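Narrative of activities, Objective 1.

The group set out to show that a structural description can be obtained from nothing but a protein's sequence at a throughput compatible with the screening campaign. Below is one input-output pair from the validation batch, recorded exactly as produced.
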Amino acid sequence: MRRETLDDNLTQLRSMLDEMGPLVVCAFRDASEALLCHRPRLAEQVVSRDPVIDGQRDAIELLAVETMNIHQPMVTPLRSVITALRCAQQLERMGDLARHVAATVVRNADRAVLAEQARPLFRDYGARVAAMGDKAVEALRTHNVVLAAELRDDDDVVDALHRQVFELMFGPDWTAGVPAAVDAALLARFHERYADHCVHLADHVVYAVTGGTVDELPAL
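Output recorded for this entry:
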């Protein structure tokens, strides 16, 4: 049997990441839909699919380590291998956060976990975070550093929405009570962390392409 070449392994790593990314963004979109529309069965599907994402992370890590041990790649291909390792980890964490959102819905199957007052804000919050996931995965697929750099500005918008959640909960018009506020705070945290991992994923893309950071890119 022909021994896999370095190029074969690099191509396979890219292919595995391309397969993993869409599963992660789909998980978050489904989790957000389950949260906003109170669909416990959809949430259960998100939770049940998470081990597939974990398995893909494990497979990428195994191949990346084997590639470094067997082929001892030089600088540029080594960057690609390191990026695959790091991106797989970021995607797996994003999948976990989608699972956390879905699991919150599952645990509260007998009631809508999201207070009606918070629903419009979370509809915008979820849509923007999901869009960041789409953009991060597309940047990873295409190695587009322009898309990758845009995610920092997108994250600023998401951070502002995160603050609005707490302004709503602690404002005078909040009537949903303390338990609903705790749920909203937890769900907001899951959304915010997902967005942060999108930025980290984009940073790894820039490193793979340029060897540097987003701050070192020329004005776009």
